[in-house]
Amino acid sequence: MAGTDNKQELLAEGPSIILVEPQLGENIGMAARAMANFGLIDLRIVNPRDGWPSEKANSAASGAVYVLEQATIYPTLREAMEGLSYVVATTARMRDGFKQVLGPEEASRNLRARFAKDQKVGILFGRERIGLRNEEVSLADDIVTFPVNPAYASLNIAQAVLLMSYEFLKTKNVEADNLPFAGTNFEEAPKEQLFGLFNQLEDALDARGYFRTAEKKPVLTENLRAVLTRAGFSQDEIQVLRGVVSSLDRFSRNMPRGAGSPDDDAHRKAQKEAAKNG
């Protein structure tokens, strides 16, 4: 359906679209075209299989090459999420864990409410064949799933990008008072700060044997991340938590299991000295 009009205002806003390890340049190009259709501009690509730039992507973009020209390539998903404060992960599969599962309309309203407050937000899309891995979903705040035929739930990446881009654009003229979180000044911390908390806490727990076996560690780690991302911490709250972890970690690394506080030991020693000196 043709409808390009260079005299009209070009929309270029909205959430970052993050494609995780896309395999085909054609799919990247069609995803860029879907973004352009509905006014999105920030395309982030994690480790594309066939390298970058891609002539096949340019051909499939059909006039949306300006989206591809501004696309950013990242080696890892964590790096692609830096600077974002709220991210949803799209999936067609059932997931175990603690994430809130949203439909595309509700997820888009959440994205719009935060975007309207100048927060940077994003949407994750997985690989053509296997989608997003559990550990990748665990880095997002919420899950988005689509109401599709349960017997044929597979969506092409570009189709999924188009659906979410369309739903986001629909929220553009919604009254601000009708959006979730519209009445608050709460600003969630950027993802790199949350990832720093993950690393610190997981290292401290690993040192104390919390994960027990290597086989259980991935699941326990995913569950821990899911719990922490659900809260939507502010920067100040993350600093408080990291301070608590630092304090507990210093204590636990210096003491054997079951031991009391180092201060308690010092107090007991002082009591013994006092008793001796009688």
UniProtKB/TrEMBL annotation:
Q: What is its EC number?
A: 2.1.1.200
Q: Compositional bias of type Basic and acidic residues: which residue ranges?
A: 264-278
Reactions listed under catalytic activity: cytidine(32) in tRNA + S-adenosyl-L-methionine = 2'-O-methylcytidine(32) in tRNA + S-adenosyl-L-homocysteine + H(+); uridine(32) in tRNA + S-adenosyl-L-methionine = 2'-O-methyluridine(32) in tRNA + S-adenosyl-L-homocysteine + H(+)
Q: Which GO terms describe its molecular function?
A: RNA binding; tRNA (cytidine(32)-2'-O)-methyltransferase activity; tRNA (cytidine(32)/uridine(32)-2'-O)-methyltransferase activity
This protein's GO cellular component annotations are: cytosol
Give start and end of each tRNA/rRNA methyltransferase SpoU type domain. 17-166
- Outline the segment boundaries, as ranges, of region: Disordered: 252-278
Give compartment(s).
Cytoplasm
Taxonomic superkingdom = Bacteria
Q: Cite the record's note on assembly.
A: Homodimer.
Protein name, please? tRNA (cytidine/uridine-2'-O-)-methyltransferase TrmJ
Supply the source organism for this entry: Ahrensia marina
Q: Which gene encodes it?
A: trmJ
